[in-house]
User: Which sequence fits this backbone?
């Protein structure tokens, strides 16, 4: 079945530690996205990538980094510079930009130890 | 920045009743999309309505769009307990980069059996 796989489902970060969230898709989609969701809130865009080896900052990119070396993979690193990383992180992909629906993974919940 | 604002923030109804959720936005749009999120899961796309469309149906869902009022509504008819979820509207602002969706904070719908 085609879809988006995020791992791990739960992740804990220690002070000063970088952690990486995985996002893999087998939908052959060109564009991929990372969102952050805080309790009772909507989604805020962290980074997005339209094609391999290219990505753009979203509204809240500070303290995060991404790479897009392969079409199917778009990992997100939460760096130690992100002082409030506790949130639900969602990865999405789409085939045709904003005029097509986005397909979402089931998220990674990140907490601070 | 979050453009869409859903109303109400929370809605509780009996099974079999209709549920109406509203979304208002601030700038011009290419399209408006509605998504559903079950607790602890990713978002699922429900329906996309383009700026030149006024109404769209999908099963028990009916979406309207009034670009003059910058508002949209989602109607779920004959609700079921399985419709319990949060519902988000998302807009594509042609001026902000056609790959970016901007989400509202959502309406939390509870359908009581």
Assistant:
């Amino acid at each position: 079945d085609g879809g988006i796989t995020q791992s791990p489902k739960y992740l804990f970060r220690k002070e000063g530690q970088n952690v990486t969230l995985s996002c893999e898709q087998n939908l052959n989609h060109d564009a991929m996205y990372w969102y952050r969701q805080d309790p009772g809130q909507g989604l805020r865009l962290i980074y997005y990538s339209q094609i391999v080896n290219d990505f753009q900052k979203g509204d809240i990119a500070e303290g995060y980094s991404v790479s897009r070396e392969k079409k199917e993979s778009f990992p997100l690193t939460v760096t130690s510079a992100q002082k409030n990383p506790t949130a639900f992180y969602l990865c999405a992909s789409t085939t045709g930009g904003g005029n097509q629906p986005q397909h979402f993974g089931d998220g990674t919940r990140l907490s601070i130890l | 920045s979050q453009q869409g604002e859903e109303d109400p923030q929370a809605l509780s109804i009996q099974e079999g009743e209709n549920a109406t959720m509203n979304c208002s936005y601030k700038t011009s749009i290419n399209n408006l999309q509605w998504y559903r999120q079950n607790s602890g899961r990713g978002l699922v796309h429900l329906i996309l309505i383009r700026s030149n469309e006024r109404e769209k149906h999908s099963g028990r869902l009916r979406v309207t769009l009034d670009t003059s009022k910058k508002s949209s509504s989602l109607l779920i008819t004959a609700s079921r307990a399985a419709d319990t979820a949060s519902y988000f509207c998302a807009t594509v602002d042609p001026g902000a980069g056609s790959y970016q969706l901007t989400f509202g904070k959502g309406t939390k719908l509870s359908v009581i059996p």
Observations:
- Chain B has a mean pLDDT of 92.
- DSSP finds no helices and eleven strands in chain B.
